[in-house]
Structure formats: structure tokens, C-alpha cells
Amino acid sequence: MKLARCYSFNDVRVEDAPPPRIGPGEALVKVSICGVCTGEAMPWYVNRKCPTVLGHEPVGIIQRVGAGVTGFRPGDRVFFHHHTSCGRCVECRRGHRTLCREFHETRLDPGGFSEFVRIPKLNLQKDTLKLPKSVTDERGVLIEPLACSVHAVRRLNLNAGDTVLVIGAGVMGLLNIQAAKLFGARKVLACDLLPERRRAALRYGASAAFAPSLARLRSETAGRGADCVIVGPPRPEALEFGLAAASPGGTVQLFGPMPPGSRTRVEFHDLYFREQSITTSYSCDASDTRAALRLLAAGKIKTRGLITHRFSLGGVGMALKKTFRGSGNFLKAAVYPHRD
Ligand SMILES: [Zn+2]
Ligand SMILES: [Zn+2]
User: Could you tell me which CATH number the domain at 147-280 has?
Assistant: First the structure.
């Protein structure tokens, strides 16, 4: 079979490899499509994992199942999550399932940018989801990214009536806008430097979209600022803008992972007397992927137009670069491993 292996962010090669062999409780799946994650397409992140086969937003068809597998059979069309959590450890019990040791030890073999993948036993048991007809392959690709948005807005514990500001209106921003509305925000505002993305934010449900400006934000929030701010771009300037944009009692959530060593200045005096919080949201767990699938199956998420670029395995390097650079007409790339 063929797969795309990264040796560095700038060196991705299509290679031949024997298809993975499956054991008891496992499944072999033929990958139909795999999304390119915004949180994965960053040089510092890819380079520390190399050599590796990336891709964790896959949809495929089960080809074979190992001994003892019940509940799945060849022909099933599925999303399969790359990580699972144990549900019993301290982190899981405290609600931080993405910090579970099992979450970091489980993974797909070799990764979604491959013609075939082995779904290990835990991943098959705990977070492989059959797709209903209403969830096409290209919608299924959005399960994992949307699950990250669901994880984020769940962690915000929105109050009915909250105004949420979403900073960054790339594909994740557009999903965060929709998730925030579905989880209780009364009004969602969006900020982006690119005019095309501001227009997209309006199409996907923001009531206003503007270039970062505190004056504009205040005029949209009767002078208060936003009750919650979701900071997408993994850059200190974006976080600083988010802090300035938050209302008294507001929460600022870091959604995109910043590179190691990132520092920013926080005025703790103001933070204290305004009783503001800084929080984070990392990845998603099995309860989030199920919620994402339910929302997609029920037609509650606008997905049309989110995938803007399609590649074969030979295009994975280009797809990563395009995702990293971003641009007005780019939202999300998807890889079709069986296309030439
Ligand atoms: Zn992802
Ligand atoms: Zn655990």
C-alpha cells in the first residue's frame, strides 16, 4: 500500500509499505478521505514527531475485523478516532479526558494519510463511529475538528445570553462560531485580518465580523466586551487582544496550541479586579466526537464549502503548507489516499 510519511514539515514522501496486520479485537480500514488538521499543520509540531504518518480526521470502510470483534463488520463506513481515554484515572474523573495517559499512548497505525489503517482494539471499542447516510465522507471528515469545538465550548460553560468573540475565522473559527451558538451563546462575533474570512464568518453564523478593533468590539457589546473569547490563532498577539476584548467577569480561552516557549504579558492587576479567567481547550474525547456526529447527522452544522482543497497522497506536503500559511480562499484541505 502507499502512505505519505513526514521526515520534516518540508519533507513528506509517498512510500510503499506492507498493509498493517490486524490482531484480535482490531480492524483494518480502507481510508476514503482524511482531513488535514489546522492544529497539526505547524512546523514545530510536525518536526518533533518525525518520522511520522500524520492524519487524524479519517473516514473509511472496514475491510476486515479481527477475532472477537462484534459490532463492526466489513463494509461499515466509519470515523475512527486516533486517541481514547480510560475513564478511570484522576484526569478522566476530573473531566480532563484528553490528558489521560491512555490518550497519549493510543494511536492509529500508521495514520490517516495512508491507503489502509489498523484500528487498534481500544480505538475500535471506544471511539469508532458508524456513519449514517446523512453524514457523507466529506462531512465525516469534520467530526474530529467539530468535536474539538464542542470540547472548547463545553469547557466555557456558557451562560444563556452570553456574547462570544471568536478570534480567527479559518475553518476552526467557523466551527467554533456554530458550536458556541448551539451551546448557548446569544450572539457570536468574529475577528479576522482577512476580509474573505470575515465574510465567511457572517455566512456561518456570526452576527458581526471585523478586523481586530477594540472600538468596534465595544460598539457591538454596549461597551462591555465579550463574555467569552475563543482565541484560535496560536500567537501571543491574538491572546493579548482576547484579554483586552473580554468583559468584566469574562473568560478567555486559548484554543490553538502555541509553540513551546511562547510567552505573553498579562496585566494581573486588571485581571484580578475584573475577575477574569484564562482557560484552554486541548483536543477532544469520545463524548465530544459523539456529540459532533449527532450535530452533523441532524444537519445542525453548516458544512458546505468548508473543504476548499483536495489532494492525493502526493499532495500531503503541499496540503500541510497551505494549511499552515492560510489565505483568503483556503479553509480546509482533505486528502484522498486512493486518488492519483
Ligand atoms: Zn484535528
Ligand atoms: Zn484516564
Answer: 3.40.50.720
Contacts of residue 24, Cβ cutoff 8 Å, sequence gap at least 6: 66, 67, 68, 69, 121
Separation of 325 CA from ligand 1 center, angstroms? 17
Query: What pLDDT is recorded for position 297?
Result: 98
- Find the radius of gyration of the CA atoms of the chain: 20
Nearest partner of 79 among 220, 235, 239, 286, judged by Cα: 286
Give the CA count within 13 Å in the CB-facing half-sphere of 233: 20
Q: What CATH number does domain 2-142+303-335 carry, 3.30.565.10, 3.40.720.10, 3.30.200.20, 3.90.180.10?
A: 3.90.180.10
Could you give the residue range(s) of every CATH 3.90.180.10 domain in the chain? 2-142+303-335
pLDDT of residue 328: 86
Distance 123 CA to ligand 2 centre (A): 14
- The pLDDT score that the predictor gives to residue 39 is 86
pLDDT along the chain (340 residues), means of 10: 98 98 98 95 94 98 98 98 98 97 97 98 98 98 98 96 97 98 97 97 98 98 98 96 97 96 93 97 98 98 98 98 92 96
pTM of the model: 0.97
Distance 88 CA to ligand 2 centre (A): 5
Instruction: Please report the DSSP string for 241-280 in residue order.
Output: HHHHHEEEEEEEEE-SPPPTT------HHHHHHTT-EEEE
Residue 300 cell numbers, joined: 445542525
Cβ neighbours, 10 Å, residue 47: 15
